[in-house]
Amino acid sequence: MHADIALLPGDGIGPEVTAAAVTVLRALARRHGHTFDFHEYDIGGIAIDKHGEPLPQATLQGCQQADAVLLGAVGGPKWSDPNAKVRPEQGLLALRKGLGLFANLRPVRPHPAALNASPIKPHLLTGVDIVVVRELTGGIYFGEKTRDARGASDLCSYSVTEIERVVRSAFRLARQRRSHLVSVDKANVLETSRLWRDVATRIGREEFPDVALEHQLVDSMAMHLLSKPREYDVIVTENMFGDILTDEASMLAGSLGLLPSASLGDGKIGLYEPIHGSAPDIAGKGIANPYATILSCALLLRHSLGLHEEADCIERAVDGALNAQVFTNDLATGGRGVSTQVATQAVLEQMQARCYVAELRD
Questions:
Q1: Which of 207, 231, 253 is the last residue of a domain?
Q2: pLDDT band at 209 (very low <50, low <70, confident <90, very high)
Q3: Do 264 and 232 share a structural domain?
Q4: How far is 113 from 98, CA to CA, in rounded Å?
Q5: What is the CATH number of the domain that holds 272?
Q6: Pairing of strands 260-264, 234-237
């Protein structure tokens, strides 16, 4: 297979973890007979510095022409003023909109070897396997905003069509897993949530009667996610609730450095990124955890390129590295972990051992 992959390293540790992921993808391509062409573009803070905007037109066009997009991270203290008219995060929001990506998939599967890195008691984490589906292009983040000397407002708005498409995506995913979907809202207070609940109920009844649908209020979901996470399979929710719940769910895995994500739409193209931020405090030190970005590549292979065996290979390799206790600082006891390079090399070695991939070289 030949595929064009747009690379958006971004800011902070973004370039470091992206480089690690590309090393793994290149090794995989060599041994499986694929050709991956990588095209690098600017986004976020570095794009503001170089081009005056967080998403240059050349970046958007390059991503639209690619088969998939791999992103590192955006943002940092240099651009952190929330009152600034131009901010790095605007580039990410505009890219999702420009690519028509409305469903963000965030798998949460705590690895047995890393259970002690989580603040949650290990006995609650064994067997946890959740995917959160977050709506990406609607809600309060994209609603009309006003501000004057007397106050400010942010409009939360959803159309039936916006809700239908992301809920259908979540139902399809649940059908492929354990046929249990939880829809999260705030229907006791918000009109948008009452619409969300009505649409989810109708879609489930008419199109997915074989999938059990449960409704949860977002505040109770926040509690249950930590107290009984094994009970959940697929969770679908609106934009802001999903943003908050997925960061909370990262605590189940022990580190943001272990969690990948995929932003998908109706077509094959997707945006793949670790859920962690740019971590400017460790940028340039060579100690960033590359596993989440490497696992994001597995999602890229599976969802955009249809290379399921290769995706499984990467996931088994990361599992093997963790089983071998190859931990970066965020996972290691006392912060005495290995470098980004050593963790990446461990994945390459595990690919060789577990996926019948021989003679991997940079």
A1: 253
A2: very high
A3: no
A4: 39
A5: 3.40.718.10
A6: unpaired
